[in-house]
Design goal:
Layout (H helix, E strand, L loop, with lengths): L33 E5 L7 H14 L15 H11 L3 E7 L5 E7 L5 E10 L1 H6 L16 E5 L15 H12 L17 E8 L11 H7 L2 E14 L4 H14 L17 H6 L1 H4 L7 H4 L6 E5 L9 H10 L13 E10 L3 E10 L7 E4 L6 H92 L1
Length: about 475
């Protein structure tokens, strides 16, 4: 008999999980996922809707880029689905009645929530219009961006009073760091880092004094973040323009392009050295400027050359070592290092965020910090008592609801058992009635048959007596 097939990839209980028994949904292995939502869809306006799309592209690949909201959707709908879908962060864009655009950054399922006011923003299309050579969309969005944060912890210097408590500054730093998966410099390949998300905090200039006006106090003491999104581009340095054009032509030939637009014309030259050494020939017969020939040294880094190497067997390695006089393989020495110039091209969007409030829960709960409201120690104690009472009332409601649910379940079970017993009794009674009816029918049929037999005997007797007479 043939052996039964066992599905190893999609079957429940397949042994294709990660090692050490860690599930994919565990907090130790899962990567952060986010949902960028516009609350009150259709009421925020086209500009904010486009900003939401740009933020989704910035948060890729760990975000729901094709999420479609409805006007009937509420916050509890998204929080209820965050757990099954493995969503760890919610970015909620909304628009107030006064026209202000707000952003709420919440951690699921228990919070906290950071409230920001979007003071200024620029869309991706606006950023591309200001660039001479805008960067086209490629493979940059296949990997998460590199997060760079600056001035998130305010320095403890004289003359500068922190507007946000230290523990809230560290909390804000942790929340933003958890937006993207961590990057290990030793193990992460350079090809996976293609974008940069820059968050820069504007530090307060000085501590507020008695002569400081209210507007200056609000401007200097605010917690403001500037967000920028860049693409990382690199190019080789130390090469002349002629060699660069030859390398580009080689890549074109490998791609089997029919167009010969980028191929250099060497028909009028006697030797390829004239093309490589003469800058005017490499420029197409014209003259070049000094900026084209001089070597740029800004933002140059040394990286390992990405060349494919052939894997040699032990015999080939021994033959290669024996061919070298010193007994060592020169190819296995120091790897080839090339210089590359790193350049950042802005992708967008831009945002200037001003933090206004910090809450404990997901968009609800105790206010941990507020920009414009300051409370005394007595007021804080009173608020703590109020929240303790609310927690106790909530726990009591949950207990009562749980008891009611259990009681109703038990009642339903008893009703179902009683109904099943009544049905059985009714079925037994119906069967007894049917048996009695069948017996009565049998008695009536037998009596009628007997009566018919007696009448036939009397008739035969009368007929016999008449014939004999």
């Amino acid at each position: 008999m043939a052996r039964r097939r066992t599905k190893k990839r999609t079957h429940v209980g397949a042994r294709n999980g990660p090692p050490n028994g860690i599930s994919a949904n565990s907090s130790a292995t899962r990567e952060p996922k986010s949902m960028v939502i516009r609350t009150g869809a259709g009421e925020v306006g086209p500009k904010v809707s486009q900003l939401v799309k740009d933020v989704r592209s910035m948060m890729e690949p760990g975000t729901a880029s094709r999420l479609k909201e409805r006007r009937s959707n509420r916050l509890r709908d998204y929080t209820a689905m965050a757990g099954p879908l493995g969503v760890s962060h919610l970015l909620l864009f909304s628009r107030s009645t006064t026209g202000n655009t707000n952003l709420r950054l919440a951690l699921t399922p228990r919070g906290p929530t950071l409230h920001f006011r979007v003071e200024q923003y620029a869309l991706c299309k606006d950023v591309r219009k200001t660039q001479k050579r805008p960067h086209g969309g490629g493979k940059e969005y296949l990997t998460a961006p590199l997060l760079v944060m600056n001035n998130f912890i305010s320095p403890t210097a004289d003359g500068i009073q922190p507007t946000v408590p230290k523990h809230l500054e560290s909390l804000t730093t942790t929340i933003f760091q958890s937006l993207f998966p961590p990057i290990s410099p030793q193990s992460s390949p350079l090809s996976s880092i293609r974008r940069v998300l820059l968050l820069n905090r504007e530090l307060p200039k000085a501590s507020p004094s008695s002569n400081t006006s209210k507007s200056e106090l609000e401007k200097d003491g605010a917690y403001i973040l500037n967000l920028r999104h860049y693409a990382i581009t690199t190019r080789r340095t130390g090469l002349s323009r002629g060699i660069k054009r030859l390398n580009a032509a080689e890549r074109m030939l490998k791609q089997n392009r029919k167009s010969k637009r980028g191929l250099p014309n060497l028909g009028k030259l006697e030797d390829v050295a004239d093309y490589l050494l003469d800058p005017s020939a490499a420029a197409g017969g014209g003259f070049t400027s000094g900026s084209e020939t001089e070597v740029e040294t800004d933002a140059d880094v040394e990286v390992l050359e990405t060349n494919t190497r052939k894997v040699l067997s032990k015999k080939q390695m021994a033959a290669l070592r024996s061919s070298n006089g010193d007994g060592k393989s020169h190819s296995m020495g120091r790897p080839n290092v090339e210089k590359r110039a790193v350049k950042l091209v802005e992708l967008g969007p831009r945002m200037k965020l001003r933090m206004t409030k910090v809450e404990e829960g997901v968009c609800e709960g105790k206010v941990m910090w507020h920009e414009s409201i300051e409370k005394t120690a007595e007021e804080v104690k009173e608020m703590e008592k109020v929240w303790d009472n609310r927690r106790r009332e909530k726990a009591e409601r949950k207990r009562v609801q749980k008891e009611n649910v259990l009681r109703k379940r038990n009642e339903n079970r008893e009703k179902s058992k009683k109904a099943n017993g009544d049905d059985r009794n009714m079925k037994d009674g119906e069967e007894d009635d049917e048996d009695e009816d069948v017996d009565m029918h049998k008695d009536e049929w037998d009596s009628e048959g007997l009566e018919g037999d007696v009448e036939s005997e009397i008739n035969e007797r009368d007929e016999g007596g008449f014939s004999s007479g």
